[in-house]
């Protein structure tokens, strides 16, 4: 495993930091508003949705998928 290599383990936080959880002390967390992970995750979720396009697939493909789903799941 790559984390078995001591230098990797020692420096992995230099390359990656969490985007929802945090590594601050409990006191710092309290002083910054005590927002738990659910609140931070919900805020990030809303930001991602607000900044993304309505769809990530081609309109023609989306229409084909909708037609397929309508035919398949409509009784």
UniProtKB/TrEMBL annotation:
<dbReference type="GO" id="GO:0008168">
    <property type="term" value="F:methyltransferase activity"/>
</dbReference>
<keyword id="KW-0489">Methyltransferase</keyword>
<dbReference type="InterPro" id="IPR038601">
    <property type="entry name" value="MttB-like_sf"/>
</dbReference>
<dbReference type="GO" id="GO:0015948">
    <property type="term" value="P:methanogenesis"/>
</dbReference>
<dbReference type="InterPro" id="IPR010426">
    <property type="entry name" value="MTTB_MeTrfase"/>
</dbReference>
<dbReference type="GO" id="GO:0032259">
    <property type="term" value="P:methylation"/>
</dbReference>
<keyword id="KW-0808">Transferase</keyword>
<protein>
    <submittedName>
        <fullName>Uncharacterized protein</fullName>
    </submittedName>
</protein>
<comment type="similarity">
    <text>Belongs to the trimethylamine methyltransferase family.</text>
</comment>
<dbReference type="Pfam" id="PF06253">
    <property type="entry name" value="MTTB"/>
</dbReference>
